[in-house]
Amino acid sequence: MKERYNSKVILFGEYSMIFDSTALMIPLKRFFAQWRFTDRDKPESIASNRSLQKFLAYLAQSEELDNVLDLPRFRTDLERGLHLDSNVPSSYGLGSSGTLVAAVYDAYACQKTDDMMNLKRLFGLMESYFHGSSSGIDPLQCYLGSPFKITSDGVQLLVDDFLRKDIRICLIDTKVKSKTGPLVEYFKRQREEKSYLSAFQSEYVPLVAQCIETMISGDTDAFFEVLGRLSQKQMEFLRPMITDNTTNLFTARHDFHFGVKISGSGGGGYLLGFTDDQEQAEKLLSGFDVFWF
User: Fold this and answer.
1) Is the pLDDT of residue 133 over 90?
2) Is the sign of the CA dihedral 133, 172, 240, 201 positive or negative?
3) I need a labelling partner for 227 at 20 to 30 A (CA). Which of 25, 40, 55, 144 fits?
């Protein structure tokens, strides 16, 4: 069992992955969760334990998950005061539920599988408790703890330092809590419109794949050119996922390489910012709380 379960960032592919398109994930070690039996009388520990008991009840309703997980042992540990000590911000798109799902599977799986796509499916079943539906990709990242690219064909693990050093990435705090469920439902309704679906697949999805490929290949100029077009398409196709206080970051043009996109489901939480000039970007973002990784 792991000592800690790191949070995650979906660099690209939040909504396009629904179409079996490529997504790019990296761990974010600044935030993480750990199992604890200590300090179980603290209010936050009690709240975590109660939340986990409700999650246990949900897992027990699924015959498949009941067979995959040792739920009696999980129940016994919860009765002993087990809780998840986490500093992952909730409703910020960094995987607060993903770390929990990964931790439960890692600690209580009867027999772990190395089949990544089956893991993703199981994690999706588990995480659906929190969001109504889930691709399972967030818990998969939190469980693996390594960068990866995922396509319909499977998961490709990447080396930890695959990112070029001249591309700097930051999280920009929108100061708005994000609710994943309603945004996912909104997107599902939009997909039912044939014109929206056709345009999204032909105009948006290819840009995501290009951002991923140019980032991995290290073609910085091409990456920022494609990122700029992706930002425009997010305003067009995913406007409810962009908070009003950050629209100017999506629409303004700059005399240096800089671009933003939603992180997670959007609708608040953090935005992702990309640049090759951190000093200039920090001036631009002086009105926001920002941290770099």
Assistant:
1) no
2) negative
3) 144
Q: Is the pLDDT of residue 128 over 80?
A: yes
Cβ burial 51-71 (10 Å sphere, 16+ → b, else e): ebeebbeebeeeeebeebbeb
R_g of the chain, CA atoms, integer Å: 19
* DSSP symbol at 89: P
> Which residues in 133-165 are b (16+ Cβ under 10 Å) and which e?
ebbbbbbbbbbbbebbbbeeeebeeeeeeebee
| pTM of the complete model | 0.88
Q: How far apart are the first and last CA of the chain?
A: 26
DSSP per-residue string spanning 204-228: IHHHHHHHHHHHHHT-HHHHHHHHH
Inter-CA distances, 95 with 26, 29, 63, Å? 11, 12, 26
Angle among Cα 49, 130, 185 to the nearest 5 degrees reads 165
Backbone angles phi, psi at 183, to 5 degrees: -70, -40
3-state percent breakdown (helix, strand, coil) of the chain, nearest 5: 50, 20, 30
Structural domains in the chain plus CATH codes: 5-157 (3.30.230.10), 168-292 (3.30.70.890)
pLDDT digit string, tens, across residues 188-244? 899 999 999 999 999 999 999 999 999 999 999 999 999 999 999 999 999 999 999
CA distance readout (Å), 74 to 106, 120, 133, 172, 291: 12, 21, 23, 37, 36
**What token pair was written down for 197?**
């679906």
Cβ atoms of residues 268 and 146 within 8 Å? no
Q: What is the pLDDT of residues 19-66, one digit of tens each?
A: 778 899 999 999 999 999 988 889 999 999 999 999 999 999 999 999
